[in-house]
Design goal:
- Residues 1-32 form the signal peptide.
- This protein has helices spanning 11-22, 74-84, 175-183, 200-203; strands spanning 40-44, 60-64, 89-93, 100-101, 107-113, 115-120, 127-131, 135-138, 144-149, 154-158, 168-169.
- The chain has 206 residues and is of the alpha+beta class.
- It has a single domain (36-196), classed as Jelly Rolls (Sandwich).
Length: 206
């Protein structure tokens, strides 16, 4: 799907994209995985409202090189890891090239190939570079936007089991509505990468 302008991409389009992506079978991954190794986690605090982006009191987490170097099938490793921890993959794509966020669920992005520069927190927010094997956990309400990427860049999009994302643009008129949705989100019971210990169970505990 080619996106020519943010205004041409609606919530309906996004839902249609999710439905189409969910029809793509996830390839089998017969090789058993070891216990998740220690992963360095970078935190990024994005708590202030920026224009129409609410952001969140929870820190954004970047799991650096979550895939062991011994595994060549990054897609398969991440798919199985996320599913095992209750965050099944729902789509494969790039990150939208306009500022957006989700008000009803946290979003997990696992980089399966390539690399990209992403802006976080809204139009005045910081930028980070992510590469194959990195994982980003974006709290509900936190703005994100792809600024540039290699031709082969792809992420796996995942959410806590049973949830699917809405889509909000940087629109101040929708800010109060989105903040009400965010306030109702329950804390996930497992971290998508580290499982039942560490990760959000420590860093989001308070």
């Amino acid at each position: 799907m080619k996106i020519t302008h943010p205004s041409q991409f609606s919530r309906r389009n996004f839902c249609q994209l999710l439905l189409a992506a969910s029809a793509i079978p996830i390839s089998g991954y017969a090789q058993s995985q070891p216990d998740t190794p220690h992963v360095a986690i970078q935190t990024l605090s994005l708590t202030k409202v920026v224009n129409g982006v609410p952001n969140d009191k929870l820190p954004l987490l970047i799991y650096q090189q979550a895939v062991p170097t011994s595994f060549s099938d990054t897609d398969g490793y991440l798919s199985q890891l996320f599913a095992r921890n209750g965050w099944p993959v729902q789509w494969r794509y790039q990150i939208f090239p306009f500022t957006h966020y989700h008000s009803n669920t946290h979003e997990l992005l696992g980089v399966s190939q390539g690399n990209a520069t992403v802006q976080l927190g809204g139009e005045t927010g910081p930028t980070v570079t992510v590469k194959r094997g990195d994982v980003i956990l974006i709290p509900a309400g936190v703005g994100h936007k792809q600024l540039s990427a290699t031709d082969d860049f792809q992420v796996l999009g995942a959410y806590p089991r049973g949830l699917s994302p809405d889509l909000y643009h940087d629109d101040p008129t929708k800010l109060a509505e989105a903040q009400q949705h965010i306030a109702r989100i329950a804390m996930p019971s497992t971290d998508p990468v580290t499982g039942k210990q560490g990760g959000i169970l420590t860093l989001w505990k308070s």
